[in-house]
Write a structure and sequence with these properties.
By secondary structure, the protein is α+β, with helices and mostly antiparallel strands. Among the domains are: 23-311, Beta-galactosidase, Chain A, domain 5, CATH 2.70.98.60; 632-734, Immunoglobulin-like, CATH 2.60.40. The strands form 9 sheets. Strands 7, 8, 9, 10, 13, 14, 16, 17, 21 and 22 form a 10-stranded antiparallel β-sheet that branches. Strands 23-24-25-28-29-30-31-32 form an 8-stranded parallel β-barrel, surrounded by 5 helices. 50% of the residues are buried. The chain binds (2R,3S,4R,5S)-2-(hydroxymethyl)piperidine-3,4,5-triol (DGJ).
């Protein structure tokens, strides 16, 4: 029989007969504006067909009549929904059965779509290995209004023995275009989310993290793929993905000999073999997809809308203006100093005071970063009245109170490390390698998870007036290993750690749904939708220098909205970069995110104090537009020229805020001219310059009325030519 098939196949090739495959049915995933199609062929293989703008005509006819060439091994030249090992592509699934067979061959079983609610539908495509009772569910959650499709994989082991998973991705996307341009994000501490676009060439490009924690500090798990041309803001086809996972990840982009691009993304298989017991099921993290045929601006707006609704705590609530103590005092404070800061915060119109690192530890007082971490009892010498006393004090001043924690970590010089050395992540008897003088607690261990939840409980219950937690994590994992996991499950460490962390987040969130939690990991080291959904915002970077922040916020806001982007005004010269910048420039940059201050308020006196107080009030007026509006990027800081500009437009296009920055000297006679976007052509808008120095506006168009059409077609010009000039404009509809 086998011989016969082979002869028939060879004769097709030899005769030069065109060999084709046809589909007999198809599956569609759809949002208001997008479709994804999969074909089911006669032999029950499920193949990927299409992802893009929603087809309005009867696509069924087209899909069913499309014919595909066969490869030389008889398989159609359209990729399967989830490529497995056994083929020559980079597999999305690679596993070994108890009998040693290490290939997988998946076939269609059934599919089913349910409407979760008016906006969300869920489709499960169930596949089974041809020879083994091993099931793979490819699951899609379609968010209609936001045009987002979340994809993940579930695997069920129906065998009588353990299955060893060497690699299991969350998603696979094949594209067949003339050329592909990948935008990815890179950087390091204080320089997160730098953007890089490159044309993909034959071979494989990968982006990945292997640090367990701080995974997005150097490379983010979000990317965009522009088809046929480099990405533009308002034109061109872009596919984008972001993995909702805070641990090690890997995305590969393989350009094959047929000119097809195969994107496989999910948990990094690095040192992560998973043993799945008989009858057990595992679920992989979600890949959050979107697509735009009109540039990357729409990609960002899709993510922002979706994030505010589905991947951010309290995404529909206005964020307070924060004063964070870190750069103002570092570890050097006492009760008197903190109270003075709270008083000043109230005077500045600030709404939330956050006491950062250094408030705990008695046997080993946390006076620097070398000891005390893990001992979450208030330092009696520094703060004799306790945290509750300070929170109540702030409350009396009309301000909310927040506190810093780093619950996943421990200094070896701490009571916690003395009591529970077995809780520390370590590889057998190997020496511990410290980072920032600290170790990581083993979150695969349920006792450690309980400890963290109980500690959170203790801290929060010390006063009803604690309403904000800054949750930090300042080191990566090296020499991984767990005293809790058995020897044969040590390779589960990387995945179990993050699942342990998510379980902690989940318990904390369920118990304290109203508390504000900031996601911080030495700045933007944990910037992903997996963690963000338990938090209200992210501390985008420890670098508060406005020039650096223009780039960091630009990259961050490609995927994550301004409402979730902590952006603080700090002192000049900047502590991280030593750069000098005017207070106006610092505010103009920070006001494009969730505004805060990160300094000793007493350091601002005279005119600076007046300016800062006014700017805080101004921000309160514009923040509904910044926090809930649509982002339109007008000038990229990466373009030649030394300018950057962007704007936020509220949903009914009645109000907008424009930010423009210069960061090069442009010569005496050059000025910035640019077109606005996202407005209603027919509406009339009054333009008001904000954050002015003194009463006089330096902008000729201040207080003038323009139509949306003029602003978007003719544009405006501003005298933004000195090295650090900046402008903020408010546009308000005039009826
Ligand atoms: C790193 C954070 O990013 C900073 O904002 C600050 O909280 C320090 N840790 C405190 O140790």
């Amino acid at each position: 029989m086998r011989k016969c098939v082979l002869i028939t196949f060879l004769s097709f090739i030899l005769c030069g007969v065109e060999v084709c495959a046809k589909s007999i049915d198809f599956i569609t995933i759809e949002t208001a504006g997008l479709n994804m199609f999969f074909a089911i062929s006669e032999n029950k293989k499920v193949s990927f067909l299409y992802f893009g703008d929603r087809l309005v005509s009867d696509s069924r006819t087209t899909v069913l009549n499309k014919e595909y060439k066969l490869r030389r091994d008889g398989r159609p030249l359209i990729p399967e929904i989830f490529p497995t090992s056994g083929d020559f592509l980079d597999p999305a699934l690679q596993l070994t059965h108890a009998d040693g067979v290490f290939t997988t061959d998946l076939y269609y079983v059934e599919h089913n779509t349910i409407n979760v609610d008016d906006n969300v539908s869920e489709t499960i495509i169930r596949l089974k290995d041809k020879l083994y009772p091993l099931f793979v569910n490819v699951v899609f959650k379609a968010y209609k209004k936001e045009n987002i499709i979340a994809q993940y994989i579930e695997l069920e082991n129906g065998e009588n023995d353990i299955v060893k998973i060497e690699k299991i991705a969350s998603a696979y996307l094949p594209l067949h275009r003339k050329s592909y341009y990948l935008t990815h994000f890179y950087g390091g501490w204080g320089a997160e989310m730098k953007m890089k676009e490159e044309r993909l060439t034959p071979g494989t490009k990968s982006i990945e993290a292997r640090t367990g924690i701080l995974t997005t500090e150097s490379v983010n798990s979000s990317f965009m793929l522009s088809a046929d041309a480099p990405a533009q803001e308002g034109t061109g086809e872009i596919y984008a993905g972001s993995l909702a996972w805070s641990g090690n990840y890997k995305m590969t982009f393989e350009l094959d000999k047929y000119g097809m691009l195969h994107m496989v993304g999910g948990i990094n298989p690095y040192a992560s073999m998973l043993l799945i017991e008989p009858g057990k099921k595992i679920k992989m993290p979600e890949m959050i997809w979107t697509y735009s045929s009109c540039g990357r601006g729409q990609i960002s707006r899709n993510y922002h809308d979706w994030c505010r609704k589905y991947a951010l705590a309290h995404g529909n609530e206005i964020r307070p203006v924060v004063l964070n103590s870190w750069e103002g005092t570092y570890f050097k404070f006492d009760e008197k100093k903190v109270k003075r800061m709270i008083d000043a915060a109230a005077d500045f119109g600030i709404e939330m005071f956050v006491l950062d690192d250094g408030w705990f530890g008695n046997k080993y007082p946390r006076d620097d970063d070398r000891c005390g971490l893990g001992d979450w009892q208030v330092n009696k010498k520094k703060l004799p009245g306790g945290i509750g006393h300070l929170a109540d004090y702030a409350h009396k001043k009309g301000i909310k109170f927040g506190i810093w924690v780093e619950l996943e970590m421990v200094n070896p010089k701490s009571e916690l490390a003395e009591k529970h050395p077995e809780w520390i992540v370590r590889s057998g008897n190997r020496e511990l390698l410290l980072v920032r003088s600290q170790c990581v607690l083993d979150l695969t261990n349920p006792e450690v998870q309980d400890f963290i939840v109980e500690t959170f409980d203790d801290i929060v219950s010390s006063s009803p007036n604690i309403s904000y937690i800054k949750w930090d994590s300042n080191r990566f994992i090296n020499r991984a290993g767990s005293e809790y996991l058995p020897a044969d499950k040590q390779s589960h460490f990387w995945v179990d750690y993050i699942n342990g962390l998510y379980s902690v987040y989940d318990r904390v969130r369920k118990k304290y749904p109203h508390i504000t939690i900031q996601l911080c990991s030495s700045g933007g080291g944990r910037l992903d939708f997996g963690a963000l959904k338990y938090h209200d915002e992210v501390w985008a970077s420890d670098n508060t220098n406005p020039l650096s922040r223009i780039f960091i916020q630009y990259g961050t806001n490609m995927f994550f909205p301004a409402i979730a982007t902590g952006a603080h005004v700090s002192i000049s010269p900047n502590h991280q970069t030593k750069m000098h910048a005017s207070l106006k420039y610092r505010f103009d940059v920070a006001m494009a995110g969730r505004l805060g201050m990160e300094l000793q308020p007493e350091d601002l006196q005279g005119d600076e104090r007046i300016f800062a107080k006014n700017a805080v009030e101004t921000y309160k007026q514009i923040r509904p537009i910044v926090q809930f509006g649509d982002l339109y990027r007008l000038i990229s800081p990466y373009d030649e020229g030394g300018w950057a500009a962007s704007m936020y437009v509220d949903k009914d296009k009645k109000n907008a805020v424009v930010f423009a920055y210069s960061f090069e000297f442009h010569g005496r006679d050059r000025f910035l001219e640019f077109k606005l976007d996202g407005l209603d052509e027919k509406k009339k808008y009054k333009l008001t310059e904000l954050n002015r120095i003194g009463k006089k506006s330096s902008f000729w168009g201040n207080d003038k009325i323009f139509t949306g059409e003029e602003l978007m077609k003719m544009g405006i010009n501003v005298n933004d030519s000195a090295m650090f000039d900046s402008f903020v404009f408010m546009l308000t509809e005039v009826i």
